[in-house]
Amino acid sequence: MEKIEELFANLHIVKRSSEKKEPTYLLGIDTSKTVQADKGGLAAVLCSNGSIRIYDKERLNILREFTEHPGVLNGVRFANSCDSVYSAGADGTVKCWDARLASNKPVQLFKGYPSNVFISFDINCDDHVLCAGTEKVDDDALLVFWDARMNSQDLSTRDPLGTYSETHSDDITQVCFHPSNRNMVVSGSTDGLVNVFDISFDNEDDALVTTCNSASSVSYLGWSGKDYKQIYCMTHDEGFCWWDLNHLDSDESMTRLNIQDVREVINVKENILDYLIGGLYHEKLDKLFVVGGTNSGKIHLLSCTASGLSHVMSLQGGHAATVRSFCWNAQEESLLTGGEDAQLLLWKPGAIEKTFTKKDSLKMESSVHQRVRVHSNDSYKKRKKQ
Q1: CA 382 from chain center: how many Å?
Q2: Is 47 exposed, middle or buried (0-12, 13-18, 19+ CB in 10 A)?
Q3: Using CA atoms, how far apart are residues 232 and 216, in angstroms rounded to an integer?
Q4: CA neighbours within 13 Å on the CB side: how many for 231?
Q5: Are 346 and 338 in contact, with CB atoms under 8 Å apart?
Q6: Which one of 178, 207, 315, 383 is most buried, counting C-beta atoms within 10 A?
């Protein structure tokens, strides 16, 4: 554990983004997977004002901003093989921009069905298949699929290839493809179910590999473990679940960990954990970490084992309000974080820490309400403390 502590304790702030005239919450971050030798990488940031900002990842200056989506945006992703950026919207579309171009027009438009409101999405590891999850309308909560392959002359509107409609009964809040298996995808919903699919099969029933139950509304999903044969999820009431798909065909339980409320069991040194942000699997260490924080802007790193979660260390002195998003760069072992203080911070190991002035929390209640859905299903409300 000491080596792990040392690894993350070496992270210091090396750059802070410049502030916009109209600051917004930074709700999601992703970075480009392709870096040219003579150029730095790009970072895409989802903002609460309905825009996507493209940053120079090293200098953290804004290169361009895409604002074509009307209404609420949900998620931001870079393609794996190029600098295309995707986002899903409440207008029932997923749009794709070329992050290298200043044009505010998307290069591809993926249309859903008339009643669709997309609240989650992902693209598979070879950039061939796009999948988005919808809010429940009437009795339908859908996973919608598209062919995402693009050639040089194809700047077209795409209709869906098809849908999965039988495996979730409420809003599909998370979609996450396997990091290296193009056919494996996991979805999570406010119905508490986490479903794993193999989309190489012809129909939904055959494609469903397994169903896990988080017993609460799913807020975050990820893959972990050797060959990424484990899945984990976080819930809107700060629960954490972890399953091992290696045990699908054995009598051994798939559940490695199931914590109803991490805040009630974790002992952080500062004695405060207000929320969970997400997770990261460190391949070199073969370790899963859970990232959480405090309303004052501290970031807590928790180590995850089958025996429970334990506090590793904290990053502080950077954010002044709730941290909403992060992106870990495994090659550089660097971290990007964004939050409700409208700041994008770059943390790197071994750097000389610079002196920064914390930004005040932004009181933009309407922006938060645009982003956070209130789930009224009584079975998933947080249980009252005894």
Answers
A1: 22
A2: buried
A3: 13
A4: 29
A5: no
A6: 315
Distance CA 15, CA 334 (A): 12
Which residues 6+ apart lie within 8 Å of 293 measured at CB? Answer: 273, 274, 275, 277, 299, 300, 322, 323
Tokens of 315: 């990053």
Edge-to-edge strands, sheet with 193-198: 172-177, 184-189, 193-198, 208-213
pLDDT digits (tens, 9 = 90+) for 26-58: 999 999 988 653 456 899 999 998 899 999 999
Separation of alpha carbons 21 and 35, rounded Å: 30
CA 122 to chain centre: 10
The H or E element that residue 59 is part of is none
Tokens, residue 225: 């473990």
pLDDT tens per residue across span 195-228? 999 999 999 999 999 999 999 999 999 999 999 9
Strand-pair partners of 158? 110
- Using the 8-state DSSP alphabet, how is residue 4 labeled? H
CB–CB of 302/313 below 8 Å? no
> Where do runs of H (alpha helix) occur along 89-240?
204-207
Contact 10, 313 (CB under 8 A): no
Among 226, 232, 333, which Cα is nearest to 276's?
Answer: 232
Pick from 83, 96, 174: nearest CA to 132: 174
Task: Give the span between the Cα atoms of 376 and 367, in whole angstroms.
Answer: 20
Give the chain's length: 386
Rounded Cα distance between 125 and 147, Å, is 13
| Residue 271 burial (10 A CB sphere; 0-12, 13-18, 19+) | exposed
Q: What residues are paired with 244 via a beta bridge?
A: 230
Q: 103-136 burial, b for 16+ CB within 10 Å, e for fewer?
A: eeebbbebbbeeebbbbbbbbbbebebbbbbbbb
d(CA 66, CA 53): 6
